[in-house]
Amino acid sequence: MLFYGTRLSSPLMLGTAQYPSPEILSSAVRQAEAGVITVSLRREAAGERAGQAFWALIRELGVPVLPNTAGCHTVREAVTTAHMAREVFETDWIKLEVIGESDTLQPDVFGLVEAARILSSEGFRVFPYTTEDLVVAERLLAAGCEVLMPWGAPIGSGKGLNNLFGLRALRAHFPDTPLVVDAGIGLPSHAAQALELGYDAVLINTAVAKAGDPVAMARAFRLAVEAGRLAYDADPMEARDMAAPSTPLLGRPVLG
Amino acid sequence: MSGGAAILVRGAGVAGLVTAVTLAERGAKVTLAEAGSRIGSGASWMAGGMLAPWCEAADAPREVTEHSLGSLSWWRSHVPDVESNGSLVLAPARDTAEITRFGRRTSHFEEIGAEEIARLEPDLAGRFSRGLFFPEEGHLDPRKALPALADRLVRLGGRLLLDQADMPASAGFDYIVDCTGLRAREALGTLRGVRGEMILLRCRDVSLHRPVRMLHPRIPVYIVPRADHLFMVGATMVESENAGPMTLRSMSELMNAAWVLHPGFAEAEIIEMGTGLRPSYPDNMPLVTQEGRTVFVNGMFRHGYLLSPWLAARAADLIFG
Questions:
Q1: Which domains does chain B have, with CATH numbers?
Q2: Given an 8 Å threshold on Cβ–Cβ distance, is B284 in contact with A71?
Q3: A184 annotated binding-site participant
Q4: Choosing a second label site near B11 at 20 to 30 A (CA), which of A110, A120, A174, B224?
């Protein structure tokens, strides 16, 4: 699946926040073989390019950068941050977050659609962080988005894919739109599960950055997304209620 | 190099002061030159002053703990008013999973419940049901400790020169020890600044005997009690070299943590809001390096008070062999 015309080298998107040090972050990105890295742009770092030293470290990783609007609570704030990000990272890609509730960091889907419309009309390639709601997804596509990033669970909660039905429905409803599970993944098994559902990528940050050994965890996630993708492409068997012995049990009454 | 060497130490922050005193104690003739008009004009003045080698293991490499085990006793033997009451780690009721994580990565603590928390900090009675107590840790007030070190240097025969925007020429000195933090970045290419913000509160309604770390998945905050009903609340970590005034977001996060610890903080007076840049290498670990007759002590990141005694000893080893 192409993300705005670009094929990613890996279905693993890795966030760059909260690592113990930039050096551990670099090693984690290398071990993850991440296809994209996301970077949040804080206002106090953007003024006079005060974040330059850290951004230089990010650019040196040589992985496509997807800046985000993390922490923005209003449309205007998100749009302003997107403008700063375009200037700093010289990309029109933007992961759009408009937070509606500061406790759960749940997206404000109304503000999200509006900000997506504004940014799309200005030429941005918008990656919206949304819920698994189908109608909101339709509105985001109508607003110009060509990628959807539904949550698995609230950001940083590590609770995995909480609404499997919703995520499956989204996949079935939008077979041609790149879909990324964005938030809530805590374990490599959650990431594998998202790929097994047919999702095109997962975005991980806290689960790697806050692990005791972020570099080892990054590798674990790389292996998990590889397994999940292979499994999806291999057309998995259907689960069934009855046991189905793989070797015939001769001489045993199996129906009875 | 034997004792009696003439050494110029540049930068009177915590790294420079501790190094100057250490060198003077080994018999060097030390001149400490500071560009600013007072000592501790950089990040050192904004620090919490926690001497917490065991707690730091939660997020820092093992070396930070290993190299800071002698730190508390160094400070106790060099400046007055160093407290050794341990430190307390708490979390709001719904974030107690963070205590589990913290405990898994640290050692030398006691798991304590409501009763023990109330015994250690009577003002927190009934507010928390679970915590970790690190009895072997301590804390100091940087704004008292640094001047005390400067006095000590002078008593040891050292010289302290302020307002040295153009640093004294290195001629006439056997060694230069550069402890100028981010000012040394041209010589030390990979150095960067990590922004930190803190607030100083005065609150007569709450008293604490030791630093309290409030764990939170996004916004970990510590509160360090100081004399005269003062409390230092810190500190944010932002990958930015903007040393401009604190943002409302950071202020709200720090103040909220204080309020969650004890509602009495709602009536606290806000005495100061401060911002500093922590000089940091890419691995966030400090380094002692040498180029000819110049020794650099830099990259203290969050660990200036904790690691300076160890680093100063390494710098002295380099010079005296």
A1: 6-48+141-191+282-320 (3.50.50.60), 87-135+192-280 (3.30.9.10)
A2: no
A3: yes
A4: B224
